[in-house]
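Bumping my old thread because nobody answered last time. Still need a sequence for this structure:
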């Protein structure tokens, strides 16, 4: 335990907000120790009111940190000092998707055997269940696609499975007395949709890693559908209906063919180009033809559901009827949004990296109003904290974040002005920043782009040679990641004897485990790897950012432009700053860490130099790769 001035200051600010029942944004840069800064005020409020506290996190990693490390440490000290006379009881809230369903697993294995398919992917789960392992964290090597097939998420609420781990765990919340509920944002926002759940039963609500709240709210309150998921559901209905001769094979072929045509039409409306990025959102206009096809697909589905229900009258299977009702609801939720199209949803299409399949998504335009109504309008103090919520060092710097989640709708008497507490680390001594300035930036699709990628990959390799690996290389697209990896991974292995890992070679957790244990390894990644990585020590001594993380304008950002009444350039700039801070924040994780941040985008040395330097800590400026070498050498001597 070490005294940190910004931590104490933040704790006092949080205590003030809680004691006055206000909503408050408290940004805490890396090293501040924000979890302890809010845990003490939360415990104070529990003692004062007798009401439990709720702490919601953006990641399961932080959940585990709170439950297994931070709260036990606080508990130990407060008991030793006589402030507490009992242990703090914690309830860990996890969603359905974190548990395996034995019924789903048995069905998948039986289906694979029946169709003579390979079912080895399910064997670790089968073996684990026999040992009483139901939690997602028990299966780090099981891929996400396999897990989706067997988790509890799609199960009926009327399931009668005896000993279901999720049901047993869920019942604990109503039966067990606890002081703090620790959950993630998915769990909290799902609970807020349940009329039986009351946020006012808590004395304090903490939203940690709050920069993720808006995007997770979009996934919880939005809906999506793709050809494959629709086809799977339709085939399940067809199997039930045909089992009693209530559905003809010609009708089955007709509805599956029409489903394919429907999604082909959506793809044509959204993707009017041959090449596309899998992580991009493509706007789709819901025209009369798409509405007409949605109506016809629903009519066919409705008839199929009727036929399946009639078939079940012979067997009187309640669980199968529940399945029919659930499939009907799932399909209609998506098709209904299209059939009754109104200008209150944002529609877009994205593309699967695995197989190129498209998915259509619909998100309410008023996510901010929903969060305000469900979370911020309730008479409970709500504290939002994260290391990356502001875009500049002033009160106005929080406007972009606040506008997205609806906290700006709170009347001023119930809102405490946000603060930002700077990191206690001395970045000028612990780390340097190199910004590429010689290699002229070339946009994708412009002449010379392939040569530019080659030269940039060569420079990245030079930096990795200087740092002897230990590098996290972050990209803004899978295409750039795959291209760079293909250009230099083999050289890294052959010339340096160092392993290179790439996102997609395993689960996120397992990749990070390998990277942190293999002290000289390199990890090439994009997407979620820009945040939530906490690798202390020499294993992560270099963060290389391939390109400034400017977002591509998409339907969600276009709506923000309209709602906030600012320019596209401003939205893109604000979004970039947040993500750049997240990526750079992976480098220095404690007071003994040292390292180099390299930004390989020459625009950061010219047009955007001031934005970049103002957004990041005061790193030591490095003018060339030789200076990177000198700095690394200096770190080694200091050790």
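Sorry it took so long. Here it is:
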């Amino acid at each position: 335990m070490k005294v940190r001035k910004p931590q104490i200051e933040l704790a006092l600010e949080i205590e003030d907000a809680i004691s006055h029942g206000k909503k408050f944004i408290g940004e805490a840069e890396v090293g501040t120790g924000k979890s302890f800064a809010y845990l003490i005020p939360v415990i104070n409020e529990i003692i004062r009111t007798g009401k439990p506290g709720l702490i919601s996190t953006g990641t399961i990693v932080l959940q585990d940190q709170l439950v297994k490390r931070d709260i036990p440490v606080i508990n130990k000290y407060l008991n030793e000092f006589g402030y507490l006379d009992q242990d703090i009881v914690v309830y860990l809230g996890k969603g359905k998707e974190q548990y395996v369903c034995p019924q789903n697993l048995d069905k998948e294995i039986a289906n694979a055997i029946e169709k003579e398919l390979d079912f080895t992917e399910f064997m670790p789960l089968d073996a684990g269940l026999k040992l009483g392992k139901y939690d997602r964290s028990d299966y780090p090597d099981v891929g996400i696609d396999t897990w989706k097939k067997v988790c509890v998420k799609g199960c009926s609420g009327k399931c009668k499975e005896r000993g279901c781990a999720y049901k047993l765990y869920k019942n604990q919340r109503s039966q067990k007395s606890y002081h703090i509920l620790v959950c993630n944002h998915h769990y909290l926002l799902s609970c807020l949709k349940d009329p039986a759940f009351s946020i006012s039963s808590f004395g304090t609500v903490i939203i940690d890693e709050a920069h993720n709240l808006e995007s997770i709210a979009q996934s919880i309150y939005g809906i999506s559908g793709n050809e494959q998921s629709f086809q799977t559901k339709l085939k399940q209905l067809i199997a039930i209906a045909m089992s009693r001769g209530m559905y003809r094979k010609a009708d089955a072929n007709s509805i599956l063919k029409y489903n394919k045509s429907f999604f082909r039409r959506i793809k044509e409306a959204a993707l009017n180009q041959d090449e596309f990025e899998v992580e991009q959102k493509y706007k789709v206009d819901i025209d009369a033809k798409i509405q007409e096809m949605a109506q016809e697909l629903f009519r066919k589905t409705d008839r199929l559901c009727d036929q399946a229900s009639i078939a079940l009258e012979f067997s009187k299977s309640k669980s199968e009827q529940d399945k029919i009702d659930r499939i009907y609801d799932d399909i209609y939720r998506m098709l209904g949004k299209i059939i009754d199209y109104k200008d209150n949803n944002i529609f877009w299409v994205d593309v699967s990296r695995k197989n190129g399949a498209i998915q259509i998504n619909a998100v309410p335009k008023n996510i901010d109003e929903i969060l305000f109504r469900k979370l911020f309008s309730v008479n409970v103090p709500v504290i939002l904290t994260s290391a990356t919520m502001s875009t500049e060092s002033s009160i106005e710097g929080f406007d972009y974040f606040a506008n997205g989640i609806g906290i700006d709708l709170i009347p001023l008497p119930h809102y405490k002005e946000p603060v930002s507490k700077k990191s206690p680390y001395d970045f000028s001594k612990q780390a340097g920043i190199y910004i590429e300035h010689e290699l002229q930036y070339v946009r994708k699709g412009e002449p010379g782009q392939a040569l530019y990628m080659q030269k940039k990959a060569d420079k990245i390799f030079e930096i990795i040679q200087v740092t002897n690996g230990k590098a996290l290389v972050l990209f803004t697209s899978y295409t750039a990641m795959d291209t760079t990896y293909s250009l230099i991974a083999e050289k890294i292995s052959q010339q340096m004897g160092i392993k290179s890992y790439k996102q997609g070679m395993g689960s996120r957790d397992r990749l990070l485990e390998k990277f942190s244990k293999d002290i000289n390894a390199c990890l090439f990644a994009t997407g979620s790897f820009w945040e939530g990585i906490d690798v202390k020590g020499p294993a992560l001594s270099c963060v290389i950012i391939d390109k400034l993380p400017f977002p591509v304008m998409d339907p969600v950002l276009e709506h923000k432009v309209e709602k906030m009444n600012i320019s596209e350039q401003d939205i893109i700039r604000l979004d970039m700053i947040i993500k750049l801070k997240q990526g750079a924040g992976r480098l220095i994780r404690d007071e003994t860490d040292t390292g180099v941040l390299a930004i390989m985008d020459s625009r950061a040395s010219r047009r955007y130099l001031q934005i970049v330097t103002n957004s990041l800590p005061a790193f030591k400026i490095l003018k060339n790769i030789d200076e990177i070498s000198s700095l690394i050498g200096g770190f080694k001597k200091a050790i």
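The first strand starts at residue 23 and ends at 28. Let me know if any region looks off to you.
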